[in-house]
Design goal:
The chain is of the alpha+beta class. The protein folds into 3 domains: 3-97, 434 Repressor (Amino-terminal Domain), CATH 1.10.260.40; 100-152, no CATH class; 163-368, no CATH class. It is built from 16 helices and 8 strands. The chain has helices spanning 17-28, 32-39, 43-50, 58-68, 72-97, 107-112, 122-133, 138-152, 163-178, 187-200, 205-217, 257-273, 290-303, 306-313, 320-330, 334-343, and strands at residues 3-5, 8-10, 221-225, 236-240, 246-250, 280-282, 359-362, 365-368. The protein has a 4-stranded mixed sheet, with helices on both faces. Helix 12 crosses helix 16 (334-343). The longest helix is centred in the first third of the chain and has 26 residues, at 72-97. The chain is elongated. The two termini are 51 Å apart. InterPro entries: Cro/C1-type_HTH (IPR001387), IrrE_HExxH (IPR010359), Lambda_DNA-bd_dom_sf (IPR010982), Toxin_antidote_HigA (IPR013430). Belongs to the short-chain fatty acyl-CoA assimilation regulator (ScfR) family.
């Protein structure tokens, strides 16, 4: 059945130019043998064109132009249209074979977030999904799955991980990063940027988000805010998009400022401390891997230098007022201080809760509740 896609008619059949040629000869009362004689082609060749066994080449099209008074472009266009239609029909069969594959992906979420278009036809939806990944077929998508699995199986298995959803979330980060113009990566510059980023922890999201993207892009790091997808459990990710451009991807899985900023600086630690070939996915759970522990220490020390922290926690009493004062002196948000106190069990997990700020997504941007 023919379809209409983007106001374009897409036939489910192909007409070989030989059929048009046969009709044209009938209208002129010209036999195949006469056409062969006039063009210099063999009768067999003419017959194979009419039966759809041979194409109309550019050379043949020129001969037909002179004999039949139809332009070379006319015959070439007929052949091109036939070839394209045959390719699309074959591709359609492959897409139809992959319709069940769609069920593994969070298609509705992707449509709702306008990452892809909704298609009425399931095979067309498969094509839309392939376009999202920037691959020609399901076979070319496999590396996305394999990369995600390789990381997923190194992580805790406490929650059910949908590898297809993980691959979607990672790909959306890449797509956003492609739109962020970055200067070549500057390692020393990125270290300096983190000092400014630390001060941004005290700002509201509508201020820090754009500023964070800008200052990191200036030193070769693209920061992408991508809402979490179900069955991914991801709070952040780090990967290199080339030798001169790194990506930090943040999901806002954990809603509070201490967790959000710790994730950002943890990912920054991976960029500064570790190689350019690895992909780091953060489930926010304790991990014994050396590189994860290194990134954790890096984040903690950047947010609150160790000497300042030791001095603070050794004080006789921890009060809300002392936390607020220390946070102001240190140049970080008070919620970050509370979060570290809770993590290190200096206080209970309900203590100081009101000092934490909660972030939520709003219209694809993060805002503070």
């Amino acid at each position: 059945m023919a379809r209409l896609i983007a106001n374009q008619f897409v036939p489910d059949y192909a007409v070989h130019p030989g059929e048009i040629l046969a009709e044209y000869l009938d209208s002129l009362a010209m036999s195949q043998a006469e056409l062969a004689s006039r063009t210099g082609l063999t009768p067999k060749h003419i017959n194979e064109i009419i039966k759809g066994k041979s194409p109309i080449t550019h050379e043949t099209a020129l001969m037909l132009e002179r004999v039949l008074n139809r332009s070379i472009q006319y015959w070439i266009n007929l052949q091109n249209l036939y070839d394209e239609t045959m390719i699309r029909l074959a591709d359609r069969k492959r897409l139809e074979a992959d319709i069940e594959w769609l069920n593994r992906f969070p298609i509705k979420k992707m449509v709702d977030r306008r990452w892809i278009e909704s298609r009425r036809d399931a095979a067309d939806q498969v094509a839309e999904l392939l376009g999202f990944f920037g691959v020609a077929s399901r076979e070319q998508w496999k590396p996305f799955r394999e990369d995600s699995l390789a990381v997923a199986f190194r992580q805790s298995q406490k929650s059910s991980i949908n590898v297809e959803a993980v691959s979607v979330w990672l790909r959306q980060g890449e797509r956003q990063a492609q739109k962020i113009h970055c200067a070549p990566y500057d390692k020393d510059g990125f270290r300096r940027v983190l000092e400014e980023a630390r001060l941004l922890t005290r700002e509201a999201p509508q201020i820090f988000q754009r500023r964070l993207v800008k200052i990191c892009a200036d030193v070769g790091v693209a920061v992408a805010f991508v809402p979490e997808l179900p069955q991914t459990g991801l709070s952040g990710a780090t990967k290199w998009l080339g030798s001169d451009k790194a990506l930090i991807q943040l999901s806002l899985r954990y809603k509070h400022d201490d967790q959000f900023w710790f994730t950002f600086f943890h990912e920054a630690g991976h960029i500064l401390l570790h190689g350019k070939k690895d992909i780091f996915l953060e489930w926010g759970e304790e991990d014994s891997q050396d590189k994860e522990e290194e990134a954790n220490r890096f984040a903690a020390d950047i947010l609150i230098p160790s000497d300042l922290w030791r001095s603070f926690v050794q004080r006789a009493a921890l009060t809300i007022a002392s936390v607020e004062s220390f946070a102001e002196e240190s140049g970080v948000a008070p919620g970050i201080v509370v979060g570290r106190l809770q993590y290190e069990k200096h206080v209970g997990f309900s203590w100081g809760y009101r000092l934490k700020r909660r972030f939520v997504w709003k219209s694809s941007e993060k805002t503070e509740e």
